Amino acid sequence: MIEVQNLTKHYGSLTAIRDVSFSVAPGEIVGFLGPNGAGKSTTMRILSCFMPASGGTAVVAGYDVFRESMEVRRRIGYLPENVPLYTDLRVAAYLDFVAETKGVPRGERKKRVADVMDRCRIADVQNRLIGKLSKGYRQRVGLAQAIVSDPAVLILDEPTIGLDPRQITEIRELIKSLAGEHTVILSTHILPEVSMVCSSVVIINKGAIVARGPIDTLVEQFFPTARVEVEIAAPSPAAVRDALRVIPGVVSVSDLPGSDGIGRYVVESARGRDVRGEVFQLAAQRRWDLRELRRMGMTLEEVFLHVVAGEQTE
Amino acid sequence: MKVWPIFKKEMRLYFTSPVAWVIMSVFLFIAGYFFYSIFGYYTRVSMQSATVAMGFFFWVYFSQYTRMSMQAMMNPMAARDVNVIEWVLRPLFSGFLSIVLLLSLVPAISMRLIAEERKSQTLELLMTYPVSDTAILLGKFFAGLALYGCMLATSMVYLAILRYFTPLEWAAVGAMYGGLLLMGAAFLAIGLFVSSLTENQIIAALGTFALLLILWAIGWGADATAGSISDILRHVSASDHIDGFTKGVIETRDVIYFVDVTIVFLVFGLLSLQTRRWKG
């Protein structure tokens, strides 16, 4: 549904993105991750036909964003980062304008606007001026304008920024409910959000893509081992380390960073191999105090920090 | 071409915000004052109390009327023949102060059209909707023109008052309004172009005002120069082209002048909008 190839954008001498390539399958929700200034918004602005790229191609919903911009624009809904809205219009009138501009037929328009206001839970403020709404409501009006024409592709730049936790949950549910019939690409820097909402991710850093794929695959790719955090009080830490190392399947044992000799270790083993039972048995046999035994989650957050930090040290 | 939805949106923005009401009130208030003083003067001339009127007259309008009031003093009968259009409507709409009013209200109408959307970044969103840049520009232009038209229409109150006292030549009145509308279109196209150059509405308004004032007054330099330069200056000047309309004369070259200025600046506006898209 979205095919991006070698996309490059220069602002004067500054290169915002270079050689960005990725693709999004129909019905998928893809998280677009990256630190601030990595090029997320630039990519999204190109995909939404707001501005042309300096090089490379992007095909959205089967049309080239540059050569067939009008066809693409008919099939997308875009929510820019700062949610720009006409503060002097009323919510319902604004959505009616958007629906008309996006080519929703006159007969359907009223119903579609009412539907979308229900879905985004803004029906109660439909006669208020947008400028008088709270941040949360504005965000939802912004989302409503993106989906009012029922577009095939949604491009959402930081859709949950500035919302309170309950609103964030609501928006996430709403976005999740769009999967299947809509293809969604959303940018964020809230990582747990991505694991909750998206099926796969594209991580961008300093204008280049550093990782992409389904979340599980990515985690495995970057962390091929399972890790267990162990705290054992014993007379000799060296003996503990050696004993842990000989457990079958254990790849490495190291001190937990920042725990100077108080007996906390990280035990890495082959993925899918759970060594916790053996660690317990070992401690029991040697009569060591086993104080903590915890499997460490290999989360997207760690992948993100790993690839982004890795890039920075190079 | 989706000009209509853009037009409707702009009209809503004008009228839900106080902008439209303020502009129309200012126009009605100041034009009302002019009308009162000019009409009052006209009535007094007709009643041969020209001497009193002259003192008042120097205060508001001078050069154009001195001659006439002198005539009226010397020949009381002449006053009765004085045409109400020539004496009331023409100074009302093409007198120096009235023009200053139009020259300053047009920028007030046009300044927000693009600058406001650039500042609030709604333009970014609008440009990703399936509407062409031309449709965006034309929708905004016609909305500005419609508000300008509404503003002019409020002055018809004065026509009604005049009509109560004396018959009017409707064809001449029509020519006058037609001319003002054409001139407004040209001025608004200039304002729209200037508004597309900046995010700052005050800069947009002042820039437009400066351009309009120069366009208006450039003909004044014609007398100081000679030959073709003089002709060119005279032809470029807006004031020379509105003159005919206010006399009730519609000349093709005047119509073409205003239409030309409108088209040229709309094209400039379009180029500016597209450049903005390319720069990102």
Keywords:
heterodimer; A: 314 residues; alpha/beta; Rossmann fold; Alpha-Beta Plaits; 2 domains; six-stranded mixed β-sheet; four-stranded antiparallel β-sheet; 11 helices; elongated; B: 280 residues; mainly alpha; 16 helices; 0% strand; globular
Written account of the structure:
The complex is a heterodimer of chains A (314) and B (280). By secondary structure, chain A is α/β, with parallel strands linked by helices. Helices cover 37% and strands 29% of the residues of chain A. Chain A has two domains: 219 residues, P-loop containing nucleotide triphosphate hydrolases (Rossmann fold); 74 residues, Alpha-Beta Plaits (2-Layer Sandwich), CATH 3.30.70. Chain A contains eleven helices and 14 strands. In chain A, strands 6-7-8-3-9-10 form a six-stranded mixed β-sheet, sandwiched between helices. In chain A, helix 3 packs across helix 4. The longest helix of chain A is centred in the middle third of the chain and has 14 residues. Chain A is elongated, with a radius of gyration of 25 Å. Chain B has one domain. In chain B, helix 7 packs across helix 12 and helix 12 packs antiparallel against helix 15. About 12% of the residues of chain B have low confidence.
Brief account:
The complex is a heterodimer of chains A (314) and B (280). With 314 residues, chain A is an alpha/beta fold.
Regions of chain A with pLDDT < 50 over 5+ consecutive residues?
Answer: none
The chain-level structural class of chain A is: alpha/beta
Q: Biggest sheet of chain B, in brief?
A: none
Structure summary, number of beta strands of chain A: 14
Oligomeric state of this protein:
heterodimer
Considering DSSP H and I runs of 4 or more, what fraction of the residues of chain A is helical?
25-40%
Tell me the span between the first and last alpha carbons of chain B. Answer: 23 Å
Order of helices and strands of chain B: HHHHHHHHHHHHHHHH
- Broad structural category of chain B: mainly alpha
Return the CATH architecture of the largest domain in chain A.
Answer: 3-Layer(aba) Sandwich
Count of helix runs of chain B? 16
- Averaging pLDDT over every residue of chain B, what do you get? 81
Q: What's the CATH superfamily of the largest domain in chain A, by name?
A: P-loop containing nucleotide triphosphate hydrolases
Q: Terminal Cα separation of chain A, in Å?
A: 34 Å
* Main β-sheet description of chain A: 6 strands, mixed
Which percent range fits the helix content of chain B?
A: over 70%
- Contiguous uncertain segments of 5+ residues of chain B: 48-67, 69-81
| Share of β-strand residues of chain B | under 5%
Continuous helix count of chain A: 11
Q: Tell me what portion of residues of chain A adopts beta-strand conformation.
A: 25-35%
Rg of chain B, Å, rounded: 21 Å
